[in-house]
């Protein structure tokens, strides 16, 4: 699929989940659009934000960051949302302990809905967001947080602030590194070259001519 | 958790079935506030696709429970009346799930060893070479051992055997009379008979018969001990190709790999659903596979029919003369829409009468009536022509047959529309429903009371028929579907590759109504490897097992798996699920349904999904006559983010601010930029051409392409 032959391209779908008001959209905006605002015009009609990374000289990575839409409030996401994701961020708000308590619920939900092709859980990073503000609860204890992540199956955690742009790029880089490792092991980004799979594609008129009547 | 639900919506939608979800997406798309509820813990309601665990849980849950009615006197005003919503979905009934294979491999070993002891001579004939790392695959049986056992419902049988070449031309399940064994299991333990590497028999272990078996087990373990496996694996005669032999435990371990449709559906490649998926861009959420074969029944055999021009001309079964006649007839059918007046003279005839008058061979008539048009004796010429036409128009668009199947099951499609609705601000709550509707004195629905007791007002109420209060449904229109889901170990019609097959069985002495058969392989992402899911659907009597039993006994074996892999051998059923589904059609003219309530149909016996699209569109046009029905959304990259203080605090998650702005003219719901994008893509789609999606994309294409790629991972 590489355009010039040499450069490798990957496309990864990453989910951003967590309780209402933890800053998921802010994190995505900061990461993708280098932009922060206390108030956003609602992101109506957007499935995901796209971030293109020139990872190294040989690798181009397109990240699709899937925010949860209106259904998120109650944690009822469609399969369409989870389908074929290869990584995830679970976000909580350090100023509200209740959002941390919900972290396990989100992680369990994630693991039950999606796995990598080999059946292993998708790599997932925990983000302790709004770390520029006063922290509440477990997040103050690094050792305990490490323990928590290990126990719950997070590959790591970061204190982040979308507002101050703290650690967001780092967290993403960490997650992408893990995804790349997984990818190497099991060829994630590789299409299975299954030409029989059909995607109904509206945008591109193609050379394939439709035969109106068959027999 | 849901106490923070807003108290006012434009639309409340009950049920996440297909037409409800399409309609919810359509109104959300143009800016209306939508609350979409479903009483189940899964999406897609009666259109859902379940994994194995979920469908078994679903079957258990259906054992009915009715909640008591709460008093909502304090929630309504004097002029209003309360109309109760049925608390439980009563439309799916009589679910029965059954396994036809043994529970564990271990037990099979024991049994095998035992059998070997009992009938060592027979081994020679029937063993298989090689070591088997999987579930074992030989089955052979001592001729003399014949045992039958009946027990408590869950039957596990194995029929078998070395001499199974007969079969097939007889409509009787394949078994060697003298070797036939049926064993039964009571989900318990070890003694469930059967298959394995080599010699096998079944022993029956009923509750009533324990002594014999237990002694055999003892013998067995004392003599052979652990060495048995090795000794038995060497064999004398290399048997047929290795075939996967399943156990119940293995099926259950692969529970995730299943996507079992309650309402299996296909899409005509040129049908309404495909057009909608393209025009709404919901297509980006789904992938499809073409149905690779259309089958027909001919003289009790199942045969593949030629669908495309090329197929017809290369077919050896059809004579030159017949080919010409067939082409001529099909061209005549295809011309129907251009010159309808030419067809006037056939108006009072049925399609089959017209077909007969064309002097086509009996075989061709069968192909046209049963595989292409799928018509019965009563089908009018007009309807038959239309059905033939959509078939012809759809062939060749994506593949050699006219049909597409959604990967991961038909239950994906409602979810795709729900996702679109959510992306445009629709709020979703599963496991929540309306307990009651509040009707005002003008006979309009004013509000609902949720199952959590909250009053939420709405301008329109949309609901699936399973949510409808009984007084809104005319029972005259009540019909019933019989459904059967089978896991089988091979295809109904042998093929070297994994085939996705459609078979339509016309009404006959055995079945009053036609039966639609959809056979799905692993490549449809609905089941594990080495397995097929067969869906049978018919308009039924309320006793699905009886409705399908002629078909099942003719083409399938219910005696458990055999090792035999002859193409002539019938597929063995490993698991079955039977249920009935009530179908209501609402006749609004005869009922006193409030004018702002719309009740949508559940799945019908149709194999395609065009009717739900038409129904949703019709209601949409009724409610908003001047709006576009699901126009293409803007590309993610074309959305601009504006820092606006009037938007509600926090994240972009709150859609409320946005929506208020668009209240008067819902179209303002999207930013201007987005609208431009719409116009652009509108132009682009002028000729909505589709194609087999290739793996390469131009990198400068809009990110839509990436969705496509992402979905392919």
Automatic annotation (TrEMBL), chain A:
Belongs to the small GTPase superfamily. Rab family. PROSITE patterns: RAB (PS51419), RAS (PS51421). One of its GO terms (molecular function) is GTPase activity. SMART domains: RAB (SM00175), RAN (SM00176), RAS (SM00173), RHO (SM00174). InterPro entries: P-loop_NTPase, Rab29/Rab38/Rab32, Small_GTP-bd, Small_GTPase. Its main location: membrane. One of its GO terms (cellular component) is lysosome. It is a lipid-anchor. It comes from Patella caerulea (Rayed Mediterranean limpet). It is found in: Membrane. Pfam families: Ras. Gene3D superfamilies: P-loop containing nucleotide triphosphate hydrolases (3.40.50.300). GO terms for biological process: endosome to lysosome transport; phagosome-lysosome fusion. Keywords: GTP-binding, Lipoprotein, Membrane, Nucleotide-binding, Prenylation. The keyword Transit peptide does not apply. The small GTPases Rab are key regulators in vesicle trafficking. The keyword Kinase does not apply. This is Ras-related protein Rab.
TrEMBL record, chain B:
Residues 145-158, 211-220, 702-713 have a biased composition (Polar residues). Keywords: Cytoplasm, GTPase activation. InterPro entries: FAD/NAD-bd_sf, GDP_dissociation_inhibitor, Rab_escort. Residues 128-138, 180-210, 221-230 have a biased composition (Low complexity). Gene3D superfamilies: FAD/NAD(P)-binding domain, Guanine Nucleotide Dissociation Inhibitor, domain 1, Guanine Nucleotide Dissociation Inhibitor, domain 2. It comes from the Eukaryota. It is found in: Cytoplasm. The keyword Cytoplasm applies. GO terms for biological process: intracellular protein transport; small GTPase-mediated signal transduction; vesicle-mediated transport. One of its GO terms (cellular component) is Rab-protein geranylgeranyltransferase complex. Residues 121-240, 649-713 are annotated as: Disordered. Residues 656-667 have a biased composition (Basic and acidic residues). GO terms for molecular function: GDP-dissociation inhibitor activity; GTPase activator activity. Belongs to the Rab GDI family. This is Rab proteins geranylgeranyltransferase component A. It comes from Patella caerulea.
